[in-house]
Amino acid sequence: MTCRFVPPYLLRLVAPESLVVDERLRGARAVPTLERRPVLGPGGPAWTVHTADNAMALPGRAVRSAGEPEAGDPAVDEAAAGVAGALALFAEVYGRSSYDGDGAPVSLTVHYGRDYDNAFWDGTQLVFGDGDGTVFGRFTRPVDVLGHELTHAVTEHTAGLRYQGQSGALNESVSDVFAACLKQRLLGQTAAEADWLIGEGIFVPGVRARALRDMAAPGTAYDDPALGRDPQVGHLNDYVETTDDNGGVHLNSGIPNRAFQLAATAIGGSTWEGAGRVWYAALTGGAVGPDTDFAGFAAATVEAAGAHAEVVRSAWSEVGVAGSADAPVPPGQPRGSRRVSVRRTGGFAGLRASGELDLDGDDPRAAEVAALVDRLDLAAVAGGPPQPDRYVYSLDLCGSCADVPEQHLTPDLARLVELVLGR
């Protein structure tokens, strides 16, 4: 999973060399979570800050650990304060011991590379650049940058939201959510008092920017000749379909970000105790998985909200997202009916097609489709990238979902697609 703090569309404008560095790191991030070797062994300090001394060897030289005095290096001490605050947030508010829930020591590296314009979680450690001094300053300076990156580790070890499309935008948004909780907790602010800016202070003076993102007003964080205008969106009607940035994960994360801000201010009080508890319960409660979309996550937060359910439901509705549990039910049709849907995209002409079938209805196709569903196992179907000019089928078989390239359709799947699409 590639979890950059600065979106690639911005790096492409101001620091293309940072993108080259990120590409070199992809291999390590592709290793499955359970197979990664931790940087720090168990039983040691809760966290250790290293310095790469402006090189790129990780983790670098250890310079400060939990319980030790300040080092006198601003980046080291900012990272130390940030990780201590973030771990305290998860432990004291949500009862979580480190990012993995099992007390894993956290490794951090500062002064990574020369003029490196980013921060990231690579699956084993947190890494921060110093910025180029022209557009970006130190990435350790805003504490919410550290909170954002540590939360990527939490998400990886809980719901495992896949870093693509809507689930990827949720992954980014969840990191902003707990980054905001951290910042507000350290400042002692209520949801109403907070500025809801993410990455405030990350830009050097002279850049026309308040922050990197604004959760309360996505698309308004910056407007600068070098950067352009903040392209984030805050409503589902404006959702950006793109192949860039893993399907626009940083662009579209503004939609769930805005929903959280609305929920937090409506619930009132401290964000970390109010809406933060709801979002954490949804993330870790088992209802959210790798491919959960906006509607699925909305439904999970409504379910977790208890007495605040209607407030949370209203927040999602205001950004155009209805939780799956809130979808309108046609007259006479009970909730929980078995449904099969197929969506076809791609192809040389780019023509889309979709179809849906209620297996409990009186459609003459229902019996054959039900028999096919009963013997199909989507998890066993070969995946992989689509081939040029061929179709991709997005399948939902009564809640079992998968994207299957045309060349991997089995005979049973091909027949099911034919029946549902009416072809």
Overview of this protein structure:
The chain has 423 residues and is α+β, with helices and mostly antiparallel strands. The chain folds into three domains: 3-157, Elastase, domain 1 (Roll); 223-326, Neutral Protease, domain 2 (Orthogonal Bundle), CATH 1.10.390; 339-421, no CATH class. Helix content is 36%, strand content 14%. The chain is built from twelve helices and 14 strands. The longest helix has 23 residues, at 165-187. The two termini are 37 Å apart.
Which properties best describe this structure?
3 domains; Neutral Protease, domain 2; 423 residues; Elastase, domain 1; 12 helices; alpha+beta; 6-stranded mixed β-sheet; globular
Secondary structure topology:
Elements: E1 3-4, H1 8-14, H2 16-29, E2 47-51, E3 61-65, H3 74-94, E4 106-110, E5 119-121, E6 126-128, H4 143-156, H5 165-187, E7 197-198, E8 213-214, E9 223-224, E10 228-229, H6 245-252, H7 254-267, H8 275-284, H9 294-304, H10 309-318, E11 339-346, E12 353-358, H11 366-375, E13 391-397, E14 400-405, H12 411-421
Parallel strand pairs: 2-4, 4-6
Antiparallel strand pairs: 1-5, 2-3, 5-6, 7-8, 9-10, 11-12, 11-13, 13-14
**Terminus-to-terminus distance:** 37 Å
Radius of gyration: 23 Å
- The fraction of residues in strands falls at 5-15%
Report the CATH C-level class of the largest domain: Alpha Beta
